Protein backbone atom coordinates (compact mmCIF):
# COMPACT_ATOMS: atom_id res chain seq x y z
CA UNK A 1 0.00 0.00 0.00
CA UNK A 2 1.45 3.41 -1.06
CA UNK A 3 2.11 5.97 1.65
CA UNK A 4 0.59 9.36 0.88
CA UNK A 5 3.54 11.06 2.65
CA UNK A 6 6.79 9.33 1.70
CA UNK A 7 5.81 7.50 -1.50
CA UNK A 8 8.26 7.80 -4.39
CA UNK A 9 5.47 7.58 -6.95
CA UNK A 10 5.01 10.89 -8.84
CA UNK A 11 1.94 12.80 -7.72
CA UNK A 12 0.27 12.51 -11.11
CA UNK A 13 0.43 8.71 -10.90
CA UNK A 14 -0.54 8.44 -7.23
CA UNK A 15 -3.84 6.70 -6.41
CA UNK A 16 -6.29 8.78 -4.33
CA UNK A 17 -5.51 7.21 -0.94
CA UNK A 18 -5.15 8.73 2.49
CA UNK A 19 -2.90 6.03 3.89
CA UNK A 20 0.49 6.25 5.59
CA UNK A 21 3.21 3.70 6.20
CA UNK A 22 4.42 2.47 9.58
CA UNK A 23 7.46 4.77 9.63
CA UNK A 24 5.40 7.89 8.97
CA UNK A 25 2.82 6.78 11.53
CA UNK A 26 5.51 6.34 14.18
CA UNK A 27 6.97 9.73 13.30
CA UNK A 28 3.58 11.44 13.62
CA UNK A 29 2.85 9.64 16.90
CA UNK A 30 6.22 10.67 18.30
CA UNK A 31 5.60 14.30 17.32
CA UNK A 32 2.22 14.31 19.07
CA UNK A 33 3.74 12.78 22.20
CA UNK A 34 6.49 15.39 22.22
CA UNK A 35 4.03 18.27 21.87
CA UNK A 36 1.89 16.83 24.68
CA UNK A 37 4.91 16.53 26.98
CA UNK A 38 5.97 20.08 26.23
CA UNK A 39 2.44 21.33 26.91
CA UNK A 40 2.29 19.42 30.21
CA UNK A 41 5.69 20.75 31.16
CA UNK A 42 4.54 24.31 30.48
CA UNK A 43 1.51 23.82 32.76
CA UNK A 44 3.75 22.54 35.56
CA UNK A 45 6.06 25.52 35.27
CA UNK A 46 3.13 27.95 35.21
CA UNK A 47 1.87 26.68 38.60
CA UNK A 48 3.30 28.53 41.68
CA UNK A 49 5.64 26.29 43.59
CA UNK A 50 8.35 26.59 46.16
CA UNK A 51 10.62 24.75 43.78
CA UNK A 52 10.29 27.55 41.29
CA UNK A 53 12.25 29.83 43.65
CA UNK A 54 15.11 27.42 44.16
CA UNK A 55 18.24 28.45 42.31
CA UNK A 56 19.61 24.96 41.82
CA UNK A 57 17.40 24.43 38.75
CA UNK A 58 15.78 21.25 40.09
CA UNK A 59 12.34 22.25 38.80
CA UNK A 60 13.70 22.71 35.29
CA UNK A 61 15.22 19.25 35.25
CA UNK A 62 11.75 17.75 34.96
CA UNK A 63 11.28 19.41 31.55
CA UNK A 64 12.01 17.23 28.51
CA UNK A 65 14.04 20.11 27.10
CA UNK A 66 16.51 19.97 29.98
CA UNK A 67 16.48 16.26 30.75
CA UNK A 68 19.66 14.25 30.32
CA UNK A 69 17.61 11.23 29.31
CA UNK A 70 17.05 10.53 25.58
CA UNK A 71 13.89 12.31 24.43
CA UNK A 72 11.58 11.78 21.43
CA UNK A 73 12.83 15.11 20.05
CA UNK A 74 15.83 13.30 18.59
CA UNK A 75 13.53 10.96 16.72
CA UNK A 76 11.42 13.87 15.55
CA UNK A 77 14.47 15.67 14.17
CA UNK A 78 15.54 12.55 12.27
CA UNK A 79 12.03 12.07 10.96
CA UNK A 80 11.79 15.72 9.86
CA UNK A 81 15.16 15.46 8.12
CA UNK A 82 14.02 12.36 6.30
CA UNK A 83 10.77 14.03 5.27
CA UNK A 84 12.71 17.05 4.04
CA UNK A 85 14.90 14.84 1.89
CA UNK A 86 11.81 13.09 0.53
CA UNK A 87 10.22 16.44 -0.24
CA UNK A 88 13.30 17.62 -2.14
CA UNK A 89 13.38 14.40 -4.13
CA UNK A 90 9.71 14.78 -5.01
CA UNK A 91 10.29 18.33 -6.18
CA UNK A 92 13.01 17.14 -8.54
CA UNK A 93 10.73 14.47 -9.96
CA UNK A 94 7.79 16.81 -10.38
CA UNK A 95 9.97 19.22 -12.37
CA UNK A 96 11.27 16.34 -14.44
CA UNK A 97 7.86 14.94 -15.22
CA UNK A 98 5.39 16.18 -17.78
CA UNK A 99 2.11 15.19 -19.30
CA UNK A 100 3.83 12.63 -21.53
CA UNK A 101 3.25 9.78 -19.07
CA UNK A 102 0.06 8.66 -20.75
CA UNK A 103 1.77 9.02 -24.10
CA UNK A 104 4.46 6.59 -23.05
CA UNK A 105 1.94 4.07 -21.75
CA UNK A 106 -0.30 4.22 -24.80
CA UNK A 107 2.21 5.45 -27.42
CA UNK A 108 -0.13 8.27 -28.36
CA UNK A 109 0.84 10.25 -31.47
CA UNK A 110 4.47 9.09 -31.41
CA UNK A 111 6.39 11.03 -34.04
CA UNK A 112 9.87 9.50 -33.97
CA UNK A 113 11.54 6.10 -33.63
CA UNK A 114 14.61 5.30 -31.56
CA UNK A 115 16.70 2.45 -32.95
CA UNK A 116 18.87 0.38 -30.56
CA UNK A 117 22.36 -0.77 -31.46
CA UNK A 118 21.60 -4.49 -31.32
CA UNK A 119 19.33 -4.55 -34.41
CA UNK A 120 16.24 -4.67 -32.19
CA UNK A 121 12.92 -3.19 -33.31
CA UNK A 122 12.52 0.61 -33.31
CA UNK A 123 10.80 2.06 -30.24
CA UNK A 124 8.22 4.85 -30.75
CA UNK A 125 8.78 8.08 -28.84
CA UNK A 126 7.93 11.79 -28.90
CA UNK A 127 10.26 14.42 -30.28
CA UNK A 128 9.05 17.06 -27.84
CA UNK A 129 9.84 14.89 -24.82
CA UNK A 130 13.31 13.97 -26.07
CA UNK A 131 14.13 17.61 -26.79
CA UNK A 132 12.87 18.75 -23.37
CA UNK A 133 14.86 16.15 -21.43
CA UNK A 134 18.16 16.37 -23.28
CA UNK A 135 19.97 19.27 -24.91
CA UNK A 136 21.83 16.76 -27.08
CA UNK A 137 18.61 15.21 -28.35
CA UNK A 138 17.30 18.71 -29.01
CA UNK A 139 20.33 19.55 -31.15
CA UNK A 140 20.00 16.26 -33.04
CA UNK A 141 16.32 16.87 -33.73
CA UNK A 142 17.02 20.44 -34.85
CA UNK A 143 19.67 19.28 -37.31
CA UNK A 144 18.93 19.43 -41.03
CA UNK A 145 19.59 15.71 -41.46
CA UNK A 146 16.86 14.78 -39.00
CA UNK A 147 14.42 17.34 -40.40
CA UNK A 148 14.72 16.04 -43.96
CA UNK A 149 14.70 12.33 -43.16
CA UNK A 150 11.80 10.47 -44.82
CA UNK A 151 11.06 8.72 -41.53
CA UNK A 152 12.17 10.38 -38.33
CA UNK A 153 14.57 8.06 -36.51
CA UNK A 154 17.60 8.28 -34.22
CA UNK A 155 19.99 5.39 -33.70
CA UNK A 156 21.51 4.96 -30.24
CA UNK A 157 24.30 2.59 -31.13
CA UNK A 158 25.60 2.19 -27.57
CA UNK A 159 22.30 0.89 -26.15
CA UNK A 160 20.63 -2.49 -26.53
CA UNK A 161 16.86 -2.84 -26.91
CA UNK A 162 16.36 -3.44 -23.17
CA UNK A 163 18.63 -0.56 -22.21
CA UNK A 164 16.90 1.81 -24.61
CA UNK A 165 13.50 0.76 -23.29
CA UNK A 166 14.72 1.44 -19.73
CA UNK A 167 16.05 4.85 -20.79
CA UNK A 168 12.72 5.82 -22.33
CA UNK A 169 10.81 4.55 -19.31
CA UNK A 170 12.84 6.84 -17.09
CA UNK A 171 12.43 9.81 -19.41
CA UNK A 172 8.65 9.44 -19.37
CA UNK A 173 8.10 8.56 -15.71
CA UNK A 174 11.07 9.96 -13.81
CA UNK A 175 11.81 6.65 -12.09
CA UNK A 176 12.74 3.05 -12.83
CA UNK A 177 12.01 -0.30 -11.21
CA UNK A 178 14.84 -1.52 -8.97
CA UNK A 179 15.45 -4.69 -10.99
CA UNK A 180 15.81 -2.73 -14.24
CA UNK A 181 18.05 -0.15 -12.59
CA UNK A 182 20.27 -2.87 -11.13
CA UNK A 183 20.58 -4.55 -14.53
CA UNK A 184 21.19 -1.47 -16.69
CA UNK A 185 22.66 1.10 -14.30
CA UNK A 186 26.10 1.26 -15.97
CA UNK A 187 24.74 1.66 -19.50
CA UNK A 188 22.18 4.22 -18.34
CA UNK A 189 24.81 6.21 -16.46
CA UNK A 190 27.03 6.44 -19.55
CA UNK A 191 24.04 7.32 -21.77
CA UNK A 192 22.90 9.98 -19.30
CA UNK A 193 26.35 11.54 -19.35
CA UNK A 194 26.55 11.41 -23.15
CA UNK A 195 23.12 12.92 -23.75
CA UNK A 196 23.27 15.33 -20.77
CA UNK A 197 20.29 13.86 -18.89
CA UNK A 198 21.45 15.14 -15.53
CA UNK A 199 18.71 13.76 -13.32
CA UNK A 200 19.16 10.24 -14.70
CA UNK A 201 22.91 10.52 -14.18
CA UNK A 202 22.40 11.52 -10.55
CA UNK A 203 19.80 8.75 -10.12
CA UNK A 204 22.28 6.11 -11.34
CA UNK A 205 25.15 7.62 -9.38
CA UNK A 206 23.27 7.43 -6.09
CA UNK A 207 22.34 3.81 -6.75
CA UNK A 208 25.97 2.86 -7.43
CA UNK A 209 27.17 4.65 -4.30
CA UNK A 210 24.57 2.88 -2.14
CA UNK A 211 25.41 -0.57 -3.53
CA UNK A 212 29.19 -0.18 -3.71
CA UNK A 213 30.96 -3.38 -2.64
CA UNK A 214 33.96 -5.55 -3.52
CA UNK A 215 32.19 -7.27 -6.40
CA UNK A 216 31.02 -4.04 -8.07
CA UNK A 217 33.67 -1.44 -7.25
CA UNK A 218 35.86 -2.10 -10.33
CA UNK A 219 32.86 -1.81 -12.64
CA UNK A 220 31.86 1.43 -10.91
CA UNK A 221 35.40 2.79 -11.22
CA UNK A 222 35.45 1.86 -14.91
CA UNK A 223 32.11 3.51 -15.67
CA UNK A 224 32.94 6.59 -13.59
CA UNK A 225 35.99 7.08 -15.78
CA UNK A 226 33.75 7.09 -18.86
CA UNK A 227 31.40 9.63 -17.30
CA UNK A 228 32.04 12.97 -15.66
CA UNK A 229 31.27 12.15 -12.02
CA UNK A 230 34.21 13.11 -9.84
CA UNK A 231 32.30 12.10 -6.70
CA UNK A 232 31.68 8.57 -7.98
CA UNK A 233 35.27 8.08 -9.08
CA UNK A 234 36.70 9.30 -5.78
CA UNK A 235 34.34 7.03 -3.83
CA UNK A 236 35.33 4.01 -5.93
CA UNK A 237 39.06 4.74 -5.63
CA UNK A 238 38.75 5.18 -1.88
CA UNK A 239 36.89 1.86 -1.57
CA UNK A 240 39.60 0.05 -3.58
CA UNK A 241 42.35 1.55 -1.42
CA UNK A 242 40.59 0.43 1.78
CA UNK A 243 40.17 -3.11 0.43
CA UNK A 244 43.36 -3.57 -1.59
CA UNK A 245 44.09 -7.17 -0.56
CA UNK A 246 40.64 -8.45 -1.48
CA UNK A 247 40.49 -6.58 -4.78
CA UNK A 248 43.99 -6.48 -6.27
CA UNK A 249 44.58 -10.22 -5.85
CA UNK A 250 41.28 -11.18 -7.47
CA UNK A 251 40.80 -12.58 -10.97
CA UNK A 252 38.51 -9.68 -11.80
CA UNK A 253 41.28 -7.18 -11.11
CA UNK A 254 43.63 -9.03 -13.43
CA UNK A 255 41.13 -8.69 -16.29
CA UNK A 256 40.44 -5.09 -15.26
CA UNK A 257 44.13 -4.18 -15.37
CA UNK A 258 44.52 -5.44 -18.94
CA UNK A 259 42.26 -2.73 -20.36
CA UNK A 260 42.51 -0.01 -17.71
CA UNK A 261 46.21 0.70 -17.26
CA UNK A 262 45.63 4.36 -16.39
CA UNK A 263 43.13 3.45 -13.65
CA UNK A 264 45.59 0.96 -12.17
CA UNK A 265 48.15 3.76 -12.00
CA UNK A 266 45.61 5.95 -10.22
CA UNK A 267 44.83 3.13 -7.76
CA UNK A 268 48.54 2.72 -6.99
CA UNK A 269 49.01 6.43 -6.46
CA UNK A 270 45.94 6.67 -4.24
CA UNK A 271 47.15 3.73 -2.15
CA UNK A 272 50.66 5.18 -1.72
CA UNK A 273 49.22 8.59 -0.86
CA UNK A 274 47.02 7.01 1.79
CA UNK A 275 49.98 5.06 3.22
CA UNK A 276 52.15 8.18 3.31
CA UNK A 277 49.45 10.16 5.10
CA UNK A 278 49.11 7.41 7.70
CA UNK A 279 52.87 7.46 8.38
CA UNK A 280 52.75 11.21 8.89
CA UNK A 281 49.91 10.84 11.38
From TrEMBL:
Coiled coil: none
Chain intervals with Polar residues compositional bias: 51-64
Cited InterPro entries: At1g01640-like, BTB/POZ_dom, SKP1/BTB/POZ_sf
Gene3D superfamilies, per database record: 1.25.40.420, Potassium Channel Kv1.1, Chain A
Biological-process GO terms, alphabetical: protein ubiquitination
Pfam families assigned to the protein according to its UniProt record, in alphabetical order: BTB
Residues covered by the BTB domain: 110-180
Region named Disordered: 41-65
Composition-biased stretches (Basic and acidic residues): 41-50
Pathway the protein acts in: Protein modification; protein ubiquitination
Function per UniProt: May act as a substrate-specific adapter of an E3 ubiquitin-protein ligase complex (CUL3-RBX1-BTB) which mediates the ubiquitination and subsequent proteasomal degradation of target proteins.
Protein's name according to its UniProt entry: BTB domain-containing protein
Species whose genome carries this gene: Microthlaspi erraticum
Upper taxonomic lineage: Eukaryota, Viridiplantae, Streptophyta, Embryophyta, Tracheophyta
Amino acid sequence: MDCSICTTIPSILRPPRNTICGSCYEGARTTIELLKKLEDSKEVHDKPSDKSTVNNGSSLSASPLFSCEPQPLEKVIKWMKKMKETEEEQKKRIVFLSSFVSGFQEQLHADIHLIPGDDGPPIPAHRALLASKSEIFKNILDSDGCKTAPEYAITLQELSSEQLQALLEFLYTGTLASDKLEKHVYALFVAADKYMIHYLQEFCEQHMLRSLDISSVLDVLDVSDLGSSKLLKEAALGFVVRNMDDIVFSDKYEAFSQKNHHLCVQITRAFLTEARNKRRD
